[in-house]
Amino acid sequence: MSRKVRLAGVLVLVLLGAIVSGCIGGQQTTTQTTQTTTEKVTVTWLSTQLNPPEERAFVQEQLVKEFKDQTGIDVNFVPISYTDLATRLEAEEKAGKVTIDLIADLHGGLDFFASKGWLEDLSGRKLEGRTFISTFEKYATINGKKVYIPWMSATYVMVVNKKAFDYLPAGLTKEDVMKGTEKWTYDALLEWAKNLKEATGQPQLGFPAGPKGLLHRFLHGYIYPSFTGYQAKNFDSPEAVEMWKYLRELWQYVNPASTTWDAMGEPLLRGEVMIAWDHTARIKNAIETNPDQFVVVPVPRGPKGRGFILVVAGLAIPKNAPHPDEAWKLIDYLTKPETQVKILENVGFFPTVQEATGAIPSGPLKILAEGVAAQSATPDAVVAMIPNLGEKGGQFTNAYRTAFERIVLKGEDPEAVVKELGPQVKQLFQEMGQEIP
Amino acid sequence: MKVKSSYIPYFLILPAFAYLLFFVGYPLVQALYTAFTQNGQFSLATVRKTFADPYFWDALKYTIALAGVIVPTQVGLALILALAVNRAFKGKDFTIYALTIPLTISDVAAGLIWYSMLSPSGFLNKLLLNIGLIHQPIYFFGYQYRHMEFLAIVLAELWRATSIVFVIILAGLQMISHEYLEAAEVFGADYWTRLRKIVIPLLKPSIQSALIIRTLFAMQIFGIVWILAGRDIPILAGEGFYRLTELKEYDVASIYALVIAGLSILLGALYIKFMKAEYLEVRR
Questions:
Q1: CB contact under 8 A, B246 and A211
Q2: Which of A110, A178, A283, A427 is most buried (CB neighbours < 10 A)?
Q3: Long-range interactions of B45-51: CB distance < 8 A, separation 24+
Q4: Model-level pTM?
């Protein structure tokens, strides 16, 4: 037994040794690089995006490797959570000892960092051979300063099984839906859904209303802005009450199993619904499996316009970053049209430069990209950004889900429910010191 | 190195003890701390917040209701199946294998299998429509059909987890000596009398283990409910998970975890107290 105990002890020691030496080794390389900048540079890239293991592998094995082959600059890709990034950046900026060279985060986070004065103004720097989509360019400029370079985007769209076009209501054409014209409204959707249910005997509209589904994004970023003009500001307005009444009516034509669905890819493929709303990444597999069967279309419009969410991830350089020029080279590489297409193909995020849209090979991805582009290009767009409420983000989305459950599923009085929840929603923004969107 | 032989049991139990201390004890203490403190002070605010939420009571109700329906049905079914299989017949081994196949399937996979069978365009509805028994598909899923969802969960759970009870009871049956039964037969006891007076009492230890295992697992039921009903049918483990991952309410999630732990301990204690197993050999 004693031999076994000794063996176990040795094993533990070896393991500890490996961990400790790994840590020390890591620190040594960073100190070395700061001393010998001219020889070999490692860019430290902190990212809240592309964190899942398979996406991480794509960054490390393809993007970082190709960049190193081209420039000889090494990249240390560090996946990090939203709160950890904020804490670390704040600590480093306040201590005056910055180790981060490049940040990849969503618009909300970068907007917040910029307001604290932690990001470098990138206005003076130029990128050749690419035109950024103007909406993204506009959002990246805050108070006259260019605080980040738009890198990737994502959104939520509608997917239509082509068979559903046979049951369009009078006055609405396939063109209207595909292009997102004025006639493609929420009322038209209601008519269409009604036709579909009457013709097929089953409700054919679907939403991801399961516990991990993204229905709350539809509520605060799509239907609320479309009916009230704002995500949260008019949460308890008379227009909102009308909106909830509409949604309750629409729900008669929504597949009841929606409350158990977390993503719409599978129900679309199984043929349980013909029209679905979801995040592009979550319906990608349906379109890739059956590209001939589905089209991606813009969402309908409401009385106040066509509300939709734009998820923008940007690249920013913190003030006093140790290697700003090398970080800029990495930004240059990451926003090249070829790189952007590669990102779309591998992880399903959409390009932010116009040249990349033209470079997408035909096939399933083209169907997605065209739908997304059509939605972004609609003239009546009411663009919503996901608010950055930090750890209170869960409470924000939960308020919308609660309203949905109580009004639509349990049949409670919409006016009473929104009057009760409205102040709670607004208080979240006040607590975080943010404007109510 | 010579170790005093009386210490050996302690040494042998040490790894298991260390494991439990680290993976059960430490999180338990942490959960207690998270649940009952606020800003480092003792506080019942989280408890009040959790108990004020209707979801908590629904979750408690549904968890107990599911266990109440599923566990007795499973034990009854498993007993019948075990008695049926515990005799010599052609294809006995194959039958036992077939009955234990669901043991190898994870609860999430089982949920998905049953989902595709019961969905409006699934196997069951197609079958019933084709033989003309129904003209509209039966809806099993969705908030409006919570009773059907409950039924679907019960079906899936029975299919998935009856086999573990079956295996335990079959093992117990095979340990019963034939001498008792033969003796009873000599004295003219019929099948039912033998079953009631000999088989069931001798099976009590097996039934007790099966009941404890199944009831405790029923308190933690999660995957199948999550797949088939989402939050339409709230359950304790699911609500704890939702609070933790979606709302980041670590304190409320801790209360859910503690309620599950508390229920498990209570039920385990009740079983042990009220179901004194009788071992014939010991009672002389």
A1: yes
A2: A283
A3: B46/B251, B46/B252, B46/B254, B46/B255, B47/B255, B49/B251, B49/B252, B50/B252, B50/B255, B50/B256
A4: 0.82
